[in-house]
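## retry 2 of 3
previous attempt timed out at serialization; input unchanged, resubmitting
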Amino acid sequence: MKKFNQILEEIKNARANIKNAEAEIEKTSDDYMELIRSMSLKERHDYKTEHAEDIKKKDLKLAELNEKVQREKIRIKLLQNNAKITLFEEVMPIALEILSKYKNKPYGEKTRQKISDAVKEKTNCAFY
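## retry succeeded, writing output
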């Protein structure tokens, strides 16, 4: 089973993949739009008929990149869920161990703070 930090690294990599794909989408569409903007309506029509294959390739590339972005976004959602579960599984045994030390003791503000500090010290996670 992966550790919490490994999952966070995967999320970071997935976000970088999304950023790169979105930048490539932007570049591809901007290049095409820049070319089209400078043409008249008739020139656009002629260009589209003469370069139909190139335009189709660009459209396929854009569709592929958009699909990649969507897959990575779904992957991030799944990884975030896995990260929550992993964090819970890593922290809870330690927190329960600390809580067992305070069993049958009155729970006041000082005890709450001691428990919170002990868990924070061992796991680097806040516990209330």
